[in-house]
Recover the amino acids of this structure.
């Protein structure tokens, strides 16, 4: 049984039920097809889902059952929609909430469902996302965390997803004192996983990236100088990522973390299989992680996979006792209060990954820059006409159009 309305990805489809009685319209980022987003006035848009699952803002209105929030409160939203009451919510596994996602496709593909997720996919309930001037948050008392005055929006926002996802990846894979940790992907999640691995006692952190994303290696190193870098597109002749890591660490790293969202195919075999629809994801990064770690090493997967892979190296996994851990969608509610406290104490500075600030109206151009992994854009804070001016220590507004 679900207990919240599903597939409200575009409120304009049912204006009688969802539109503002005053007739006021709002701007939002909508998905129009692969690599195509538009900023539209939603009430005039006939097709297109509202994107965005990481957002914060001020409470504009509350439902009658909400006791812990007041109009005007500054809050950050969890990217997942949890009910707070079901078996998984009670276990602290809020990302697997049983009551907020009724997608039968996901249930038959995965044998179970995740929680509903804002602005993500109809597989996760089809909820309208937060790259918009207004957003409706079901179970607001569970899924909104008030931000204290000493935590700016720019610091609080990332409790929605990136901070919790990264912390969960490191904690769930079991990074311990003295471990050598290798991280695939130097984007915001990889960068934060590097920071959090060191906070969990890792003795060395090696980060792997390449191609269009290679500049992010130096960006991460500029923020976390202890990090060692491997550029996979610039390896010496005859060297692979696995052989390189084995040269750097006897036997290979203890732990591998997949933060690259294994969506890209490096080899032609996988490229054509994906093109022909023979696999939905590629096993290349997983195999690289499995063959790189020490025997009995651990591999955590937080990068997004949605289906099946071919050529999976089950032999190495079994023979060498490698533990492959799907970290799952991160249970935000399990971590966000503690992480907020660490942000307040200055132990975690989310701004170290934030490079830009842009306007909602410029999102088409911003997506374009971001998809090309253009030099220098690690993480962007997007403001709407309701946002406060930038805080002193965060990037100032850039224009993109
Ligand atoms: Zn629940």
């Amino acid at each position: 049984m679900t207990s919240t309305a599903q597939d409200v990805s575009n409120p304009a489809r049912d204006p009688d039920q969802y539109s503002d009685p005053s007739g006021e319209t709002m701007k939002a980022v909508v998905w129009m097809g692969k690599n195509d987003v538009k900023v539209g006035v939603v009430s005039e848009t006939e097709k297109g889902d509202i994107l965005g699952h990481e957002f914060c803002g001020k409470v504009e209105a509350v439902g009658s059952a909400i006791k812990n929030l007041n109009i005007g409160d500054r809050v950050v939203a969890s990217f997942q929609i949890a009910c707070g009451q079901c078996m998984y919510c009670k276990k602290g596994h809020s990302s697997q909430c049983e009551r907020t996602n009724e997608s039968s496709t996901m249930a038959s593909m995965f044998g179970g469902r995740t929680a509903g997720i804002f602005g993500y996919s109809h597989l996760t309930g089809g909820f309208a996302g937060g790259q918009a001037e207004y957003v409706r948050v079901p179970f607001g008392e569970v899924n909104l965390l008030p931000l204290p005055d000493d935590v700016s929006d720019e610091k609080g926002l990332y409790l929605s997803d990136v901070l919790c996802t990264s912390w969960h990846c490191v904690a769930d894979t079991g990074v311990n004192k003295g471990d050598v940790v290798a991280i695939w992907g130097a984007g915001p999640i990889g960068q934060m996983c590097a920071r959090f691995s060191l906070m969990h006692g890792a003795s060395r952190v090696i980060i792997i990236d390449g191609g269009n994303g290679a500049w992010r290696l130096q960006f991460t190193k500029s923020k976390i100088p202890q990090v060692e870098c491997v550029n996979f597109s610039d390896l010496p002749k005859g060297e692979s990522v696995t052989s390189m890591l084995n040269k750097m660490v006897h036997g290979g790293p203890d732990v591998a973390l997949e933060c690259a969202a294994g969506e890209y195919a490096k080899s032609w075999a996988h490229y054509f299989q994906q093109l022909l629809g023979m696999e939905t994801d590629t096993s290349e990064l997983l195999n690289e992680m499995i063959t790189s770690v020490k025997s009995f090493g651990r591999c955590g997967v937080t990068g997004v996979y949605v289906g099946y892979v071919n050529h999976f190296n089950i032999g190495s996994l079994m023979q060498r006792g490698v533990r492959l851990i799907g970290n799952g969608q991160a249970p935000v509610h399990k971590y966000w209060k503690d992480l907020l406290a660490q942000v307040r104490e200055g132990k975690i500075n989310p701004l170290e990954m934030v490079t830009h600030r842009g306007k909602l109206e410029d999102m088409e151009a911003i997506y374009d820059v971001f998809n090309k992994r253009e030099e220098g854009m690690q993480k962007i804070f997007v403001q709407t006409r309701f946002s406060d001016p930038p805080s002193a220590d965060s990037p100032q507004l850039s224009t993109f159009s």
About this structure: The radius of gyration is 21 Å. The chain has two domains: 11-161+331-383, 163-326. Residues 82-83, 85-86, 88-89, 97-99 surround zinc ion (CB under 6 Å).
